[in-house]
């Protein structure tokens, strides 16, 4: 399945403006990973897991940031950099799993 990334980007922007950024991510994930003929229970469980992961990340960020500061501290920036690194590593591995190799060896 070929995904039109520009379409996903437009959809993400529209949904983000409507307060539905996580929903946009779920739609992209579903298009890339979940089989089109997946049963309803699989869709429901996958969406639950996707949103639970997003909720965990957001609440964790809000918990670990230094309280009371209006500007990010060095510790806050370090924590955000570590989250970024962890998610970039995941994204690289994920991309390798969902893209098919072309050609033959």
Key features of this structure:
72% helix; 105 residues; 4 helices
Helix content: over 70%
- Rough outline: elongated
Determine the strand fraction and express it as a percent band: under 5%
Overall mean confidence score, pLDDT: 88
Largest sheet: none
Distance between the termini: 23 Å
Beta-strand segment tally: 0
Count helical runs: 4
Order of helices and strands: HHHH
Secondary-structure content class:
mainly alpha
Indicate the low-confidence ranges by residue numbers: none
How big is the Rg? 17 Å
Structure, explained:
By secondary structure, the chain is mainly α. Helices cover 72% and strands 0% of the residues. It is built from four helices and no strands. The protein has helices at residues 5-17, 21-33, 40-64, 74-98. It starts with a helix and ends in a 7-residue tail after the last helix.
């Amino acid at each position: 399945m070929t995904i039109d990334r520009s379409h996903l980007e437009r959809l993400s922007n529209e949904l983000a403006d409507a307060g539905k950024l996580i929903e946009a991510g779920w739609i992209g994930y579903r298009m890339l990973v979940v089989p089109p003929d997946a049963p309803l229970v699989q869709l429901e469980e996958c969406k639950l897991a996707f949103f639970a992961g997003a909720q965990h990340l957001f609440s964790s960020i809000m918990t670990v940031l230094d309280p009371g500061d209006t500007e990010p501290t060095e510790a806050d920036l370090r924590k955000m950099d570590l989250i970024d690194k962890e998610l970039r590593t995941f994204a690289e591995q994920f991309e390798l799993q969902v893209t098919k190799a072309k050609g033959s060896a």
